[in-house]
Design a protein that fits this description.
Radius of gyration: 16 Å
Structural class: alpha+beta
Number of strands: 12
CATH class: Mainly Beta
Number of helices: 3
Shape: globular
Strand content: 25-35%
CATH superfamily: q2cbj1_9rhob like domain
Bound molecules: fe (ii) ion
CATH topology: Jelly Rolls
CATH architecture: Sandwich
Number of domains: 1
Helix content: 10-25%
């Protein structure tokens, strides 16, 4: 029940994609070193209409209520992290991260989902050669010992990470397609597959709670 990983084909149509791209252009943005984020401020009263719009879209296929929504444009692939709670546990249990690509110039754009998880939002960026880039308010953790990802997998998808092995096992490789929704449980570790710099990528990311 909302604790799976998968893809919902064409959850939005091209006119909604264009609406969201327009919306991104209007919002204030912040650059975190790997991508430009525009927080849609769905937790503000004046944005209830936008929140309802997004809520209706996702609830056709997935339960849960939206607690955060960002539209972003990334120019370099990020590191392994979970989208769990930031400092304290949230009022309701974690549900899904939902990623809807809006622009995906590189054909093989994908997001890798691991089986391992952390309910607290953490990253391993420092330990995988990305330093402090790509960090919002996620805590840095040391990469645990162990190996679960093959060298072949690493060189195919994750050659932007400076590691010889990873202590995780792969659940799925979710390929991007514009207007479809990729989803996974928020506590699961995930990472962007590598993509060429200067290829355009934009996406909406929605975080939900169970309710
Ligand atoms: Fe994430």
């Amino acid at each position: 029940m909302g604790k799976k990983t998968g893809i919902i084909k064409n959850i939005i149509d091209q006119s909604m994609v264009n609406y969201l791209l327009d919306y991104y252009n209007k919002l204030p943005k912040a650059d975190n070193g790997l991508r430009i984020n525009a927080d849609t401020l769905i937790d503000q009263d004046f944005n209830n209409r936008f929140k309802d719009k997004m809520q209706n879209i996702i609830n056709k296929d997935l339960p849960g209520s939206i607690c955060h929504c960002t539209i972003y444009s990334d120019y370099a692939p990020g590191g392994i992290h979970s989208d769990g709670y930031i400092e304290a546990k949230e009022k309701y249990p974690l549900a899904n991260t939902i990623l809807i690509p809006l622009v995906s110039e590189f054909q093989q754009n994908a997001t890798i989902i691991f089986n391992e998880s952390s309910e607290k939002a953490i990253t391993f960026n420092e330990d995988t050669g990305l330093g402090a880039k790509g960090i919002r308010s996620y805590e840095q953790e040391k990469l645990p010992e162990g190996e679960g990802v093959s060298t072949n997998f690493l060189s195919t998808y994750l050659n932007h990470l400076k590691v010889d092995t990873l202590p995780f096992t792969v659940d799925s490789v979710l390929y991007w397609s514009v207007g479809s929704a990729l989803y996974w449980p928020r506590e699961r570790f995930h990472v962007s597959a590598n993509f060429p710099k200067n290829t355009e990528r934009k996406a909406v990311v929605i975080l939900t709670n169970e309710n």
